[in-house]
């Protein structure tokens, strides 16, 4: 039991080490990760046989521990402040700007946002019931708007003022009113990877 617990702790330390390094370097060496985690390189590779497996585990931890709670809190809030939610979301991701500026961010973002599907469904429902979000929005719409914001506002040249300016410009379009949105086809849903239970009735 003790060995299993130690093994789990080592894996957690390795993942945390990469998260810490990502705030300043998009591609630290595996040796740097091991050194930061305080483990030997053999221990690192025993848990994560290649860089891809370590990066995916770290992205999943990052989104589960830092991003999902933002969405979950918003979904149960008495009043939904969409600007505050989006700003916190983008600012949190922005701490890892070197990573998102250097890698194929769309792939990592898409994989990680899949873990937020259920919280986004709840956020959408609560926002629509409160009259804050337009009725024809679907969960995939929120996911893609935030995806675009993340890609556009995590530059190292960004600032809190820059983020708030463009969030304030974009987010009102999610509110009630305005022209109807073009419906998504089944082919669109398939390309976006939307589960059948999360598709609108007009797809």
From TrEMBL:
InterPro entries (UniProt xref): Homeodomain-like_sf, HTH-type_TetR-like_transc_reg, HTH_TetR, Tet_transcr_reg_TetR-rel_C_sf
Domain of life: Bacteria
Record-given protein name: TetR/AcrR family transcriptional regulator
DNA bind region: 29-48
Domain HTH tetR-type: 8-66
Annotated source species: Aeromicrobium piscarium
Keywords from the named record: DNA-binding, Transcription, Transcription regulation
Annotated segments matching region Disordered: 180-203
GO MF annotations in UniProt: DNA-binding transcription factor activity; transcription cis-regulatory region binding
């Amino acid at each position: 039991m003790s060995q299993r617990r130690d093994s789990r702790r080592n894996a957690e330390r390795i993942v945390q080490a990469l998260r810490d390094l990502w705030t300043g370097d998009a591609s630290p060496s595996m040796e740097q990760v091991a050194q930061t985690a305080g483990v030997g390189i053999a221990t690192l590779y025993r848990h994560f046989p290649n860089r891809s497996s370590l990066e995916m585990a770290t992205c999943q931890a990052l989104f589960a521990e830092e991003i999902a709670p933002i969405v979950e809190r918003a979904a149960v809030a008495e009043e939904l402040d969409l600007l505050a939610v989006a700003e916190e979301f983008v600012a949190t991701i922005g701490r890892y700007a070197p990573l998102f500026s250097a890698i194929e961010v769309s792939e990592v973002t898409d994989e990680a946002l899949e873990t937020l599907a259920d919280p986004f469904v709840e956020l959408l429902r609560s926002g629509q019931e409160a009259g804050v979000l337009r009725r024809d929005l679907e969960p995939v719409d929120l996911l893609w708007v935030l995806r675009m914001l993340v890609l556009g506002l995590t530059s190292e040249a960004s600032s809190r003022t820059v983020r708030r300016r463009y969030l304030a410009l974009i987010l009102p379009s999610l509110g009630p009113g305005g022209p109807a949105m073009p419906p998504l086809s089944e082919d669109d849903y398939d390309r976006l990877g939307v589960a059948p239970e999360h598709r609108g009735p007009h797809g």
